[in-house]
Amino acid sequence: MSLLVLSNSLQSYIVQINRFPLLSKDEEFELAVRLNQYNDLDAAHKLITANLRFVVKVAMEYRNYGCRLADIVQEGNIGLMKAVKRFDYHKGIRLITYAVWWIRAQIQAFILKSWSLVSRNAKELKRKLFYRFTESRNKIIELDNSNKSFDSMYAKLNKDLSLDEYIGDDAITHIDMLRDNSPNQEEVLLALEEGRINKEQTEYAMAVLNEKERFVIENRIMSDIPLTLQEIGDKLGITRERVRQIEEFALKKLRKKLQQKSLPVVSHGI
Predict the structure, then answer these.
(1) Which of 138-142's residues contact partners 24+ apart within 8 Å by CB, and which partners?
(2) pLDDT exceeding 90 applies to what percent of the chain?
(3) Phi, psi for 243 (deg, rounded to 5)
(4) Contact 214, 233 (CB under 8 A)
(5) What is the reported pLDDT for 123?
(6) pLDDT in tens, 130-157
(7) In angstroms, rounded to a whole number, what is the distance separating the alpha carbons of residues 36 and 163?
(8) Rounded distance, CA 210 to CA 221, Å?
(9) Sign (positive/negative) of CA torsion 51, 184, 235, 164?
(10) CA torsion, points 107, 110, 111, 116, in degrees to nearest 10?
(11) The predicted structure's pLDDT at residue 63
(12) Domains of the chain
């Protein structure tokens, strides 16, 4: 199966990529060594396919940005492959912790390039344009100790994009859609799917949440097809910002609960 070709059905694609086995930390390290030292393409393939499911989860966050979801997932896969090529296993972090910034940056760049060009307020639009994208860039530089591999993508976005146009009837602009300060969830998902936090432990931790917090966590983090902040807000009759606040607070409660029982807790998210 080509990594860049999605099936017509997203559910079918998810079923396909979920067949690829997840990697333990030791397995991932061994494959990264093989790729780095011997240019082992089979190792690269295993590193990529083991993380395709996480690309879909990130891509789903951007499905209401006016681009086809299949295209967004494809761009995310490209970001994942760039990350695998540049991943430094010596740093002692999991691949997805590093790769998620490349995935997001690639998707953000694609969306931004897809929006219409405008000539007015160019200086202000550029400032707003690079707000979220620059965050991804800075995180990559922090983990990479280099900005050379990212600058070509960054430079291509030096255009006047229509970021202040309203989307639909909700008085929400493209800039509003780009601002998402939700906690990093990737290592939480990795821990859950590897079984380091099993069903019993998850239920133990989730018991600390109230009904609204549990709904947000189940539909934003634990679902194969997570809802957006706006979609959850619509269901609960609250704003996107309030959903974000509930999510952040709930994650802090879960982390505290897991720590109390001395369960394995990841460094980001929970």
Answers:
(1) 139/101, 140/101, 140/102, 140/105
(2) 27
(3) -65, -45
(4) no
(5) 43
(6) 555 555 566 666 666 555 555 555 454 4
(7) 40
(8) 16
(9) negative
(10) 170
(11) 79
(12) 10-178 (1.20.120), 186-260 (1.10.10.10)
Cα–Cα distance between 252 and 40 in angstroms, integer?
40
> Distance of CA 29 to CAs 25, 37, 95, Å?
6, 12, 9
Residues of the chain with pLDDT under 70: 1-8, 115-200, 224, 259, 261-270
Q: What is the pLDDT of residues 173-221, one digit of tens each?
A: 444 444 444 434 445 455 555 555 556 677 778 889 999 999 998 888 7
**N-terminal to C-terminal alpha carbon distance within the chain:** 34
Read off the amino acid at residue 3: L
CA distance 133 to 107: 10
What is the spatial distance between Cα 184 and Cα 111, in angstroms, rounded to a whole number?
A: 21
What is the rounded average pLDDT for all residues in the chain? 72
Please choose, from the candidates 128, 107, 21, the residue with its C-alpha nearest in 3D space to the C-alpha of residue 64. 107
How far from 176 is each of 110, 118, 130, 179, CA to CA, in Å? Answer: 17, 18, 13, 5
